[in-house]
Fold this protein.
Amino acid sequence: MIDKISAKMVELDRFDLAILEILQRDNKTPQRSIAEVIGLSAPAVQRRIKRMEETGTIAANVAVIEPSHVRHEITVFVEVEMHSEFGATHDATKKAFAEAPEVQQCYYVTGEVDFILLVVVRTMGEYEAMTRRLFFANKNVKRFRSFVAMDRVKVSLNVALDPKLDRS
């Protein structure tokens, strides 16, 4: 699971927020360039980035891949309802979803269903095999419902940063 640090523990000022805005657009932006834009030295920017990585504010530095360029043409949103939300079987289900390579994102949610999954696969046959493995073989899965995306209108991992977070 994702480790979480209390927002109260992570102090962000206007320079941190400016750094995060730039890195969200392109995390390969040279620290020297960031420093010039926000008015700090490159070593100060480097220290701030390192601190934000260590505290988990910057959770990862990754390449965002266009799925169709690697022949993963099908995106499916899946609602999953469980028989029971408690105990070892529920924890095992969370673990299975988290470890499945087809599952790009998984959220444990409130409401009529228990999980929402974002799944990216090459073919419907691959999706069917995943459903057999993750849903039909799991006796705690009561039902699931699939929604196949017809078009990717917007895809982003950016977080809209609120200038009110600046505590300086």
The two ends are 32 Å apart (CA to CA). The CA atoms of residues 65 and 72 lie 10 Å apart. The longest strand covers residues 74-82. Helices lie at 14-25, 31-38, 42-55, 88-99, 124-136.
